[in-house]
Amino acid sequence: MKRLGMRIFLSHLLVIGLAAVILILASQASLPNAFERHLRKMDGRLMMRGAGMMLELYREYRNSFNEALFLALVVAVFVSILASAWLSLRIVSPLQALARATRRIAQGHYDERVEVEGEDEIADLGRDFNNMAAQLEQVEARRRQLIADVSHELRTPLTAIKGYMEGLLDGVLPAGEETFHQVYQEAERLSRLVDDLQELSRVEAGAIELHFRPLRLEQAIATVRKRLGPQIEAQGLTLHLYLPDSLPAVLADEDRLIQILTNLVGNAIKFTPRGGEINIRAEQRGNEVYVTVEDNGIGIPPEHLGRIFDRFYRVDRSRSRETGGSGIGLTIVRHLVEAHHGRIWAESEGEGKGSRFIFTLPVARQA
Ligand code: ADP
């Protein structure tokens, strides 16, 4: 029992002491009056026997009252001290358990939990503590997973660069344009990965500043079309837009909206074979505008649909190596859409049957 326990114990003791003193003083002050009043009610003959006897009787009565009072006080104080000590211990021991668990967590033992009993404030504190510990445990698990994933992603291009260099040194690979080009491509992949990771860490931390204003979706789409047009043409693809005239303005950050669309259309280009089609549709439903980016490319098998927004997740890793994808693009897109208070999901009838990415944006209210 340390300071808090002692303080609770002493405060209980103070209350007991005060109660005892007041009990004594009050009883002593009221005793003569009470005695007289009761005697007066008694038979008058007793009064006649004389004042001496009255005094004697009163003294005896007071002595026996004091004796009983003293005995009662000793027992009461003793029991109160025991009860007070027990109560103080009960309050302090869960706090001590919490302090111990906090120290364990600070040392990195994130699986530490405290036992929670009852419904009082200390039990609430224990429950909150356990919730916090569970959250910390999850964050730690995610951090470990992230480090494992990042190392894995970095290792792949580095191993390739090392392989080319060894080939060059051993004279197995010709020191020609093609080899240098391969090395350059791997270095490119590394720098793209680092850029993506930096962007991901910013969106995940909510460290990007969004400037919301009413925007015409048509304009953002026109910008994306201009930017990706050459790529679409080079791939022999066609882009169709289905935008109703009545489409209201959306509340969005222009640069980020363009980033979302560029990413989705970019993926559609990557995963759609020559001669394919990409469609962008938009329609208003209630207070939201639903934007769909659709292609008739390689599609996504149903078992992957739920996971493609996860970090580093790719349906076909070997294919992604050719297209240079790291599996971070959609994770960033999901964060950006959510930062716009929207939702995003993917649909596909299966492999070879094309994919649809749908996201929502809030309609800008009329001023
Ligand atoms: P990546 O950099 O690999 O494109 P993304 O996060 O953008 O990473 O996409 C994750 C995965 O989702 C891709 O590797 C691919 O397997 C799948 N994917 C995304 N868009 C499409 C699409 N339009 N058609 C088919 N698969 C897609």
Describe the structure.
The protein has 367 residues and is an alpha+beta fold. Helices cover 64% and strands 11% of the residues. The protein has 10 helices and 7 strands. The chain has helices spanning 3-41, 44-48, 51-106, 121-170, 177-204, 217-234, 254-270, 302-305, 317-323, 329-339, and strands at 213-215, 238-242, 250-252, 277-285, 288-295, 344-347, 355-362. A 5-stranded mixed beta sheet has the order 2-4-5-7-6. The radius of gyration is 41 Å and the shape is elongated. It binds adenosine-5'-diphosphate. The site of adenosine-5'-diphosphate has 21 residues, from α7 and α10.
Morphology call: elongated
Put simply, the count of helices is 10
Distance between the termini: 64 Å
**How many individual β-strands?**
7
**What are the bound molecules?**
adenosine-5'-diphosphate
Strand fraction equals 5-15%
Topology, element by element:
Blueprint: H1 3-41, H2 44-48, H3 51-106, H4 121-170, H5 177-204, E1 213-215, H6 217-234, E2 238-242, E3 250-252, H7 254-270, E4 277-285, E5 288-295, H8 302-305, H9 317-323, H10 329-339, E6 344-347, E7 355-362
Parallel strand pairs: 2-4
Antiparallel strand pairs: 1-3, 4-5, 5-7, 6-7
Adenosine-5'-diphosphate binds next to helix 7 and helix 10.
